[in-house]
Amino acid sequence: MMEKNAKIYVAGHRGMVGSAIVRELRRQGYDNIVTRTHAELNLCRQDAVEAFFAEEKPEYVFLAAAKVGGIVANCSALADFMYENMVLEMNVIHAAWQNGCKKLEFLGSSCIYPREAPQPMKESCLLTSALEQTNEAYALAKISGLKYCEYLNRQYGTDYISLMPTNLYGPNDNYHPTNSHVLPALIRRFHEAKVAGSPTVTCWGDGTPLREFLYVDDLANLCVFLMNNYSGNETVNAGTGKEVTIKELTEIVAQVVGYKGEILWDTTKPNGTPRKLLDVSKAAALGWRYKTELEDGIRLAYEDFLNNPMRAER
User: With bands split at pLDDT 50, 70 and 90, how would you rate the model's confidence at 311?
Assistant: First the structure.
């Protein structure tokens, strides 16, 4: 268990996941939290990361920093996604080990699992077949991070764990029109269509892919729970165990936003992976379950979008 006064470093504290982890830590009474902005500490600079860890000596690390994006961003910046994610995570994990960090938690993504993995996807299906091509570069970087944690455990006896979340959404999300993930992109698209009085909204693909979504504050609760209650080389899936089609998702978002027009589909655009449902029985067996249902979470996310208009410019 983390002591309430333990020094905890949250990497990526300004992002959606990192900021949620900081909120959850404070909610649970942890107040010795160390953070650095990108301007203060570039995690892709090995010398800077090593100097930071040597000075601060955090006892626990939540590694939530990452370069992230949707299909368009992943397909157009393959090299950037692989390089930046692999370098920053290796720098942080290695410096944590060099400086005697008691425990580190690495956050990955469900895209690490094969495109054609049996559904729902168990943690053990990792590296059993080919990845989805549209996010292969990002997935390979994340696989490298979780494997490095495993190898440090096996070689040096560290206590480094990894967590693989499903699709996330919630406060402090990225609502960029081309670089965001599907749910925040839909929130922005339907909101702008409502404001403009547009009679139609066109979405990518045919609406058939199945996706699972987890509210980010629920993920943060699991992050702290696992840091206090789990040790092991195998990753832990983070999700709800429930899925919806992209078509159903668009209808829910349109209803929450209040858009009344027609939804069209551009089938010349990619669908992505046909199905991505996580097997969450491992987290459940440890005693954890999500709290926020999808429609409730989307309402909270839309409130965040409306109350923070600058986020729509990112």
Answer: low
Out of 9, 60, 113, 138, the active site residue is 138
* Each residue's pLDDT tens digit, 139-185: 999 999 999 999 999 999 999 999 999 999 999 998 887 767 889 99
**What gap in Å lies between CA 259 and CA 190, rounded to an integer?**
6
Six token digits for residue 276: 């991505």
Q: Is 138 one of the annotated active-site residues of the chain?
A: yes
| Structure-model confidence comparison of residues 309 and 1, the more confident one | 1
State the angle between helix axes of 294-307 and 182-196 in degrees (0 to 180), rounded to the nearest 10: 60
In whole angstroms, how far apart are CA 40 and each of 23, 149, 258? 21, 25, 41
Question: pTM (2 decimals)?
Answer: 0.93
